[in-house]
What does this fold into?
Amino acid sequence: MTTGLTPTEHITLNMGPQHPSTHGVLRLELELEGEVIVACRPIIGYLHRGIEKMAEARTYPQVLPYTDRLDYLSSSSNNMAYVQAVEKLLGLEVPERAKYLRVISLELNRIASHLVFLATFANDLGATTVFLYGMRERELIMDLFSMWAGARLTQSWIRIGGVGADIPDGFVDQALAFCRLMPKRLDEYDRILTGNRIFRARTEGVGILPPELGVNYGASGPTLRGSGVEFDVRRAEPYEVYGDLDFEVVTRPTCDCMGRYLVRMQEMRQSVRILEQCLKRLPEGEVRAKVPRVIRPPEGEAYGRVESPRGEFACYVVSDGSPRPARVRFRAPSFYHLSVLPRMLQGWKVGDAVAILGSIDIVLGEVDR
Amino acid sequence: MNASLYNTIGQWWYVHGLPPWIFEAAWMVAMAALVTVFVLLSVLVLVWLERKISADLQSRVGPNRVGGRFGPLQTAADALKLLLKEDIFPAGADRVVFWLAPFVVFVPSLMVFMVLPFGERLAVNDLNLGVLFVVAVSAFPVIGLIMAGWGSNNKYAVLGAMRAAAQSLSYEVPLVLAMVCVVVFAGSLRVGDIVAAQREGGWFILRFPLQLAFLLYFITAMAEVNRVPFDLPEAESELVAGYHVEYSGMRFAFFFLAEFAHLFFVSAFCATLFLGAWQGPWLPPAVWFLLKSYAIVILIMWIRWTVPRLRIDQVMGFSWKLLVPLGLAAVVLTGIVKVW
It folds into this structure.
């Protein structure tokens, strides 16, 4: 808004790659007029490791640990997408118990990831205390993970043909105890943050993502559901046992940061619901199908898609009949969310930039691969 | 400080025929040293307190190693570390401005302590324009913030400095209006008189229209010391650290000191204006004064660690659209009640 009398100069502000609120090594080139953002260019690639290329030189089981390092906040979704594609190639039928265990893993990971979202989003808005609340509950999930996988983040527990190992004794009880605790803690978050006037002033009506724009840019997951589009891979194309489970696909019509935030908060409650069902129904039996020692899928291609905490995470695998995949490609939801970000930032202030960036909940590990 | 002590030593000095200017100068230096030591010690306590309070609110433990179970020496250790750090001038910085800024911020934060009454006639100098002095001097550090932001040659720092200037200007107005209410009620700008007025008719916070002034003062004081929800000038998640992003070591420590000194001052001044300063039963006056001041400090910290941060336009709007009209109304109301 120049008056015509004094030409104002835009300043270019480099937000990142080292900045407390870019959630990893992202660089945003912001063009500012005072505090108002005129244009934004996300610059990615700082975390590029060439995982897709590396996968071509590894055997099928060897690729699995690389997938942990894509979206490091929800490694089981990545595992799942890859394993699903390979199992489609092999035509494997997975034991029922393994399917349930996988869903338990996925949903626990969803809660853990959404808790990180809650923590960092609140921290970006200056509510430092909520950051530690979110991390506190996440720690309980990490304990559960280390019970079955020995690892907290990079689990690689969902394997081709089933899961790595059966759950240890006492796991179900501990997980059920967590399911009982979590709704209370979610109420606590609502009390300290959701109704807060300042929090609402910072999130309501901020960072509008119209549904058409979101769909056109390939947005998915809570980011799209916060704009009222009811799309969830778990419902649209159920995998594992999601078809038999009772849960709601949460949507919000407001299209703003608050909408996306509320979708995630509600999704955690839904995940707890799914977890309770799975833990109670968990059948006995094997946890792994018979898989040949050397996996040589027949020539062909397969596409595995899952609903990761961030959106539709998919994996495309091409086999040429050798023990190594000919091509592996990942569809990372954060990448699509990052490409629509400049449209969402325009006209907002620097303070909103961190709020909007936080509300789309990106993980640079999967953007850069 | 204490007038009788001043008189006693002064008389002794004159009786022995020593030149009076040496006494005057020595007295001033001693007072300045006393205030400085007090402020530095207070800051050490405050930083420790802030860590412990935030830890309690965030279900953490907080400092628990240095100097015993509750980590009382943690801040002293950190201060020592800052002292030993390299003194860095960023490339392209305006060296003079960059060098000067921490002092411009720090010195006024110390100066305002001059008028604080720690007990009856226990202020360094109870100026007859005490309140005015406080308003004038505490508005000064913002110049230092702008200098720091500009001198750093860093865009984040400039943004932080601009925010600091805008915010400080906007909140000074309701702050002054809140103080005017108190001055009208007490009928004097001298801090000693304001305290005396509270001795006769009860604390000002308990007198009818002054609750509004207290509320205004409290809110604007939080904005003055850049605390959440008004911590935009340093907004860690947005501007990394704002105006002091390029500062390290002792220079950074000066900003830090100034911030906490100012925090203590606004709380202590709040206690002076509204909570009857050092007055209270049983305990010695200085203890009462510190108790009241720390109560306000803890309240400000509590709020800081609970709520999120506002956006710059919301901060401005809040001041000009709500606090300033409220402040004017409070002044009018106070005037009416007073005349009645």
Notes: DSSP finds 13 helices and no strands in chain B. The interface with chain A takes residues 54, 57-60, 155-156, 159, 162-163, 228-229, 231-232, 235-240, 305-314 of chain B (CB under 8 Å). Chain B has a mean pLDDT of 83.
